[in-house]
């Protein structure tokens, strides 16, 4: 909708534990602050968001969560430890970034894993959030992880059999994300590469409705493929380092924060039920159900248009 302007400022913020997170700010330095929490976990920020926010009105902040994008050290390096990479670490990083930029309150936007992180941050720091926009709502409950790693086999039995058989036989009835994470941290490069390939094949099939070709996707790059798989399995295998119903049980803390929840009825990876239940527990949020949308935001689709409308609502 708007030109993709270049950042007027960017940098690397030292957040401790040997971690540097990359951030950038674009638009109007004196404008209304907004911050995007990207998905994945591990996908990194995307400049496409700059096109959704009027650069004359908004002061837009994008940042890369620990270990991904331009943040360092990268988890694409198997030697990089992940013991300091948890949801609480990311919440603390976002708060340090807000303070570093001298922002009092900001609008938060982001979907999928970004949804979980936004809600967890807002529950902990409600006074720092002006509004929230979430496409593709998730809360990272154990049942959500179980659905996307096992339940979806009801719809994709061919892809699921290959996915499940990618881990040792003794692990196939257990936590598949954790089993894959062990393979992705193997000292053997061949084991790591195969695990990243197998995990990404399943991930792509569930997002695109069965399209299992890496060509033209981020998964075509083996470094990106490994970084994503290693980060996602680290978080999902450990239930996002949250209590099972942490977000559901604390949504009352968002009272007074306006929100727009946007969810596609055809989102197989994140069924509408989660967004429906979040909306019931958060009276200040509006739920927009899109009958023709799935999980992915694409330029010009109904999800993209709904995000644009929500941003305009909170100008």
Description:
This protein has helices at residues 87-100, 113-124, 142-149, 157-164, 176-184, 189-208, 222-237, 246-249, 272-281, 302-313, and strands at 9-16, 19-27, 32-36, 58-63, 106-109, 129-135, 259-264, 285-290. The protein has an eight-stranded mixed β-sheet, with helices on both faces. Helix content is 36%, strand content 16%. The two termini are 15 Å apart. With 315 residues, it is of the alpha/beta class. The longest helix is centred in the middle third of the chain and has 20 residues, at 189-208.
How do the strands and helices of this protein lay out in sequence?
Blueprint: E1 9-16, E2 19-27, E3 32-36, E4 58-63, H1 87-100, E5 106-109, H2 113-124, E6 129-135, H3 142-149, H4 157-164, H5 176-184, H6 189-208, H7 222-237, H8 246-249, E7 259-264, H9 272-281, E8 285-290, H10 302-313
Parallel strand pairs: 3-4, 3-5, 5-6, 6-7, 7-8
Antiparallel strand pairs: 1-2, 2-4
């Amino acid at each position: 909708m708007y030109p993709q302007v270049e950042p007027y400022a960017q940098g690397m913020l030292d957040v401790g534990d040997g971690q540097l997170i990359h951030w950038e700010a674009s638009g109007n330095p004196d404008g209304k602050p907004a911050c995007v929490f990207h998905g994945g976990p591990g996908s990194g920020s995307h400049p496409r968001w700059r096109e959704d926010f009027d650069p004359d009105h908004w002061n837009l902040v994008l940042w890369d969560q620990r270990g991904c994008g331009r943040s360092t050290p990268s988890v694409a390096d198997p030697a990089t430890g992940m013991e300091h990479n948890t949801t609480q670490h990311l919440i603390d990083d976002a708060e340090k970034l807000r303070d570093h930029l001298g922002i009092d309150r900001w609008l938060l936007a982001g979907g999928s894993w970004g949804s979980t992180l936004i809600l967890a941050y807002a529950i902990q720091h409600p006074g720092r959030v002006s509004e929230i926009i979430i496409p593709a709502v998730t809360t990272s409950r154990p049942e959500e992880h179980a659905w996307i790693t096992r339940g979806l086999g009801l719809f994709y039995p061919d892809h699921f059999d290959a996915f499940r058989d990618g881990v040792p036989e003794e692990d196939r009835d257990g936590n598949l994300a954790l089993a894959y994470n062990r393979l992705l941290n193997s000292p053997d490069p061949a084991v790591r590469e195969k695990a990243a390939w197998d995990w990404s094949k399943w991930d792509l099939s569930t997002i695109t409705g069965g399209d299992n070709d890496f060509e033209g996707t981020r998964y075509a790059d083996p470094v990106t493929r490994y970084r994503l798989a290693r980060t996602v399995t680290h978080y999902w295998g450990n239930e996002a380092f949250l209590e099972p119903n942490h977000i559901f049980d604390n949504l009352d803390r968002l009272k007074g924060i306006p929100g727009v929840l946007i969810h596609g009825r055809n989102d197989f990876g994140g069924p509408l039920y989660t967004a429906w239940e979040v909306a019931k527990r958060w009276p200040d949020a509006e739920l927009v159900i899109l009958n023709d949308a799935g999980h992915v935001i694409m330029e010009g689709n109904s999800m993209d248009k709904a995000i644009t409308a929500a941003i305009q609502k909170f100008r």
